[in-house]
């Protein structure tokens, strides 16, 4: 060998630039339709949510951006919110619109049969774009909750045409350095049809809009048994994977801690990502979390989540790609499978702790956070007011 780069000598070197975006709503209370449990110290406003998100980054070095949601995170001065975030070592990530909490949207928002309601939903995105410009965010994230509950309720085809027109108006309002990210979801809140139910529909709309329109893959938004890593590969191949909403699902859109239900699936996803070098920042893929912590502590839940994503990425980086390719080309079925499993079964926890220590971070972020006294401090400080939650 005549030359070597750090990534040749250290297979995990790319982790230095790998980051994960955390959602502001993960720090507020959430629950099911049966019960929302409250916790002491839960943030009461966007400022306190960002302060909590800052803790996740401070203890892991992995989460330098926070997604915000409009209007849940509406403040009088977004420039000030962004500057507050910067002071805490984080920045504002994607801006999420809200098309599901307004009475006008009973029959849909961007697809509503009423042009006046569609115009209102489009105008909301102009407001979100203003928030992006004030905060320095570059990603407008649209999860479209529109759909129908009964066959015949509305024309499936007409709803697609309305959606295409509405998205066109929004996309045309974006600047050259801004992206429109379109999420898909198989069901809920509607149960007969969703207007963006799958990656194909999202991709078709993105392709029609233009280069800066990309698909968001939420890992909880598919039918059971869906091969999600195949979708990841295909969207990367098309240059249209904009972001992930990572979480775990056992049944529906569970929004549990990523990597808790099926760590092997997370590894398989990250293997496809690493195979196409999409873990590097220049790929433009934003690795976001979309989770809620209904019964567990929220900041530790987020710390655990970002560590799980990092761990899966580390294992994916350890795949011996030369050996894998050789086995694949030789038709060595079990040999190729074995190469992948060797990486997955490697215990990387010590290696990752060493890397954290070398970077001046705690070896055990969960323990360090527990010992920091932050949770007790905010529980004592955050008295009065209304705790933030799903919807505020
Ligand atoms: C809803 O099911 C989607 O996963 C959304 O991405 C997300 O939960 C929402 O944007 C938060 O409002
Ligand atoms: Zn999502
Ligand atoms: Zn979801």
Q: Your description of this structure?
A:
This protein is an alpha/beta fold. It has one domain (15-317): TIM Barrel. Helices cover 43% and strands 11% of the residues. It has 14 helices and ten strands. It has helices spanning 6-9, 46-60, 78-87, 115-135, 156-173, 199-209, 228-237, 263-275, 298-317, 321-329, 333-344, 349-358, 365-372, 374-381; strands at residues 21-23, 65-69, 91-96, 139-143, 147-148, 179-183, 193-194, 213-218, 241-246, 286-289. It has an eight-stranded parallel beta sheet. Strands 5-7 form a two-stranded antiparallel ribbon. Helix 2 packs across helix 9, helix 4 (115-135) runs parallel beside helix 5 and helix 10 packs antiparallel against helix 11 (333-344). The structure holds D-allose and zinc ion (2 copies). Residues 25, 69, 96, 143, 183, 185, 218, 245, 253, 290 line the site of D-allose (AOS).
């Amino acid at each position: 060998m005549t030359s070597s780069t750090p990534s040749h000598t250290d297979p995990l070197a790319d982790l230095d630039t790998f980051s994960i975006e955390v959602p502001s709503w993960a720090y507020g209370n959430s629950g099911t339709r049966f019960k929302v449990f409250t916790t002491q110290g839960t943030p009461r406003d966007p400022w306190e949510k960002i302060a909590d998100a800052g803790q996740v980054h401070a203890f892991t070095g992995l989460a330098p951006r926070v997604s915000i949601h409009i209007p849940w995170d509406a403040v009088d001065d977004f420039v000030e919110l962004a500057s507050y975030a910067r002071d805490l070592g984080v920045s504002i990530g994607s801006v999420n619109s809200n098309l599901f909490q307004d009475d006008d949207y009973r029959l849909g928002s961007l697809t509503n049969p009423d042009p006046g309601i569609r115009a209102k939903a489009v105008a909301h995105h102009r407001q979100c774009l203003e928030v992006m410009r004030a905060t320095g965010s570059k990603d407008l994230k649209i999860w479209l909750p529109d759909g129908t509950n009964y066959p015949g309720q509305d024309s499936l085809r007409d709803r697609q045409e309305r959606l295409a027109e509405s998205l066109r108006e929004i996309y045309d309002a974006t600047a050259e350095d801004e992206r429109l990210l379109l999420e898909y979801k198989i069901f809920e809140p509607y149960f007969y049809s969703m207007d963006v139910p799958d990656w194909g529909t999202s991709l078709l709309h993105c392709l029609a809009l233009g280069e800066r329109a990309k698909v968001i893959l939420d890992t909880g938004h598919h039918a059971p048994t869906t091969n999600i890593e195949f979708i990841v590969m295909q969207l990367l191949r098309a240059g249209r994977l904009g972001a992930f909403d990572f979480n775990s699902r056992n049944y529906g859109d569970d929004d549990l801690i990523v990597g808790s239900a099926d760590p092997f699936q997370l590894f398989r996803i990250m293997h496809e990502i690493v195979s196409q070098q999409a873990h590097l920042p220049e790929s433009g893929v934003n690795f976001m979390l979309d989770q809620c912590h209904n019964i567990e502590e929220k900041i530790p839940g987020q710390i655990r989540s970002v560590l799980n994503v990092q761990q899966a990425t580390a294992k994916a980086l350890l795949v011996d790609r030369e050996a894998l390719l050789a086995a694949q080309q030789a038709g060595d079925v079990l040999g190729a499978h074995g190469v992948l499993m060797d990486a997955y079964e490697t215990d990387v926890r010590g290696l990752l702790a060493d890397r954290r220590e070398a970077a001046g971070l705690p070896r055990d972020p969960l323990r360090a956070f527990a010992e920091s006294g932050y949770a007790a401090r905010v529980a004592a400080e955050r008295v009065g007011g209304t705790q933030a939650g799903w919807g505020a």
